[in-house]
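Quick one - inputs below.
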Amino acid sequence: MSKLDWQRATVTAIRPETPRVKTFTLRLPQWTPHLPGQHYTLRLTAPDGYQAERSYSIASPPEQTGEIELTVEAVDDGEVSGYLFEGVGVGDQLEVRGPIGGYFVWRGMPDARPLLLLAGGSGVVPLMAMLRHRQRAKLRNPTVLLFSIRTPEEAIYQEELKSMAAADDTFTLLLDYTRQAPAGWTGYHRRIDKALLAEVMGQFAASPECYVCGPTGLVENAATALLELGLPAQDIKTERFGPTGG
Amino acid sequence: MVKSSERQLVFSFLALAFTTPYPLLKKGGELALSSNFKQILMPPSFFNQGFQRKRPSNHKLPPGQYETKDFPVLSAGPTPRIALEKWSFSLEGLVEETKKWSWQEFNALLQQEFNPDIHCVTQWSKFDTKWRGVSLDTLLEHVQLKPEASYVMATSYGGYTTNLPLADLREGKAFIGLTYDGQPLTPEHGGPARLVVPHLYFWKSAKWITSLRFMAEDEPGFWERAGYSMYGDPWKAQRYADDDE
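Output:
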C-alpha cells in the first residue's frame, strides 16, 4: 500500500487540552515515520455516503512509533471537529491518510541551526511535533517558542512546555497573552509586533530558522516583521489557518 | 453509543448479497426496492456512525471539499509587497519574442468580469467569487508561441512557481486577476496581480504573478516538487502526486 492510501485508524486515547481543544491518539495499521510539521488528512463518511475531509497537523514526534496524535480545535459549527468532539470515543475507527507536506517541516538533524518557533493558538500543534522530536533526539540547538494566546485557558500543552523548558537550558518558552494574562504576569501582554520580535531575535547569537503557524493576521504580521528585521525570506516558513479550518 | 463496527457487519452482509458497490446503487436509485430497504442498502462499506452533512449546498462540491464564505489565506512564506512602479508581467520561454508589460500597460488591456467557483487543496471551496482581470486569451494574442510550447511555468514575486498545461490557460479557462470583490487585490490574496485558473486546485492560481514561461515539457513547480499533484484536478481529487493517474 502506498503511504497516501486511506487507512482505518483506531482511537486509543482522547485527551482534553483546553476547553476547546482535544488530542486524539490514533493507532495506525500502516504507520510511516513523519517529519515534524507534516499533517494527516482525516475523512468522515456519513451513512448516506457524504464525505468530509480536513487536514490536521501531527502533534506527536516520529519517535512515537505506530501511532500519531492529532490535536484538534473545535470550530464553531464545525462539521468535522464537531463530530470528533461529540461523536467519537476510544475504540472508534477513523479514516486517515498521510503523512503529507514537504515544506513546513523541520528535519531536526544533529547539526540543526538555531530555531525560532512562533505560534498563535492551535498553530502550536505542528511546532509541538518539532519540539517533541528535538527533545527525544536530545538536540541542543538554541530554540525559542513564542506562543501567542488570548487567555491562559487557551494554552495548549502548557505543562509539558513548561517542564520541557525547565529541563533544557537551550530551550526558552515565551508565552504572550494578548487579551487576558494570569494574575501577576510580567511577560508579554500584547499582540506580536516588530519590537517584540526584535527582542526575541536578540536572544539568538546566530540567525535562526523560523517557523510561524497561526491565524492569518498573526502570520502576516510576524512574517513581515521578521523580514524587516533582516531574516532572509527562505528562513521564514509559514502555515496559516483561518476560522474555516475545521 | 452504538459502535460503527456492529452496524457495519450488517451492511457488509447486505452489500455482499447484492455484490454491487455502493456508488452504483446510489446512481441506480430506481432499483425496485422498498424505500426502507434502499435506505439500509445505501451505506458505504465504512462509515462514521452518527456523522452527517451539516451544511447542505446548492452548488456542486468536488469530492472532499466543503463550502466556505470566507476567503482563507494560504502561502508558504512571507507575503511579498510589490511597488506598482516596479511591477512587470511577461510572457517568455518558447515564444518568438518575449512580451513584457508595466503595471500601467497591463491595466490598459481589455478587462473582463469573472465569477468562478474556486477550490483549494486544503478542502475549502468558495462559490461565485467576483474578479476583474485580463483573460489569458487576451494576453496570448500578444505573442507568437513556438510550436513545441505545451506547458507553462507560472513564476511569482517571492520565488513561488507552479506548472500547468498550456491548454488549461486557453479558451476562457484562466485570467490574471486585478480586483477582487470590486477592490484592488490585496497582497495576502496575491495582489497586485494573481493568476486565476479556477478549474484546478487553487495553488495553481499563482499569487504575485510576474511571468509565464512556455515550455516543451512539463516541469514541477514549488508544491509539485514537494509531492503535490502535477495537474491538480479538484473533480478527480488530484491533491498529491499519488493521486495522479
